[in-house]
Amino acid sequence: MTTQRPSVPRQLSIAALLLVGVAAISVFGALASSSNVDGWYSTVTKVPWDPPNTVFAPVWTVLYALIALAGFLIWRAGYRGGSPNAARGTLTVFGVQLALNAAWTPMFFAGYPMFGEIAWTLALVIITALIFTVVALAWMSARWSRSASAIMVLYLLWLVFAATLNLGIIVLN
Length: 173
Prior knowledge:
It is a single chain. This protein is an all-alpha fold. Helix 1 runs parallel beside helix 4 (88-115) and helix 4 runs antiparallel to helix 5. The protein has six helices and no strands. It has a single domain, classed as TspO/MBR protein (Ferritin), CATH 1.20.1260.100. The radius of gyration is 18 Å and the shape is elongated. It has helices spanning 8-37, 40-43, 53-78, 88-115, 118-141, 146-172.
């Protein structure tokens, strides 16, 4: 089977769509956390390995750009012209991880003032589901792009680290 490459305008359109979608998730998360980082979050007891708040924005910015790139690489590898994208199952899991990612920050940061400490536990459930989804995505994306799979592994490492911070707040407070 001959692999047909999408046109450059089509590739640019999909890349832009992915970047805008991932950027929207980033902005949504920033809005949910901005007033809380210097609020309740600054007063809770955190694990000793919790980095300074200034670390999170640059790390997430790089990760979000890489996540968009991974989605693009998977989409492009599965492109078959007029046919449905051959990587649509992997792209569906990619979408699920985006939705879970979009849910974690508002639940963790904005959820606490509304729901109290249960928000931290719900956030831990969300990030745990996200971790399992990213494990599946790393495995599934290897078929389409080793680079996309490697990006998912890097993202997974950060998520596991973030989950320890989430769990630490639950245990220590």
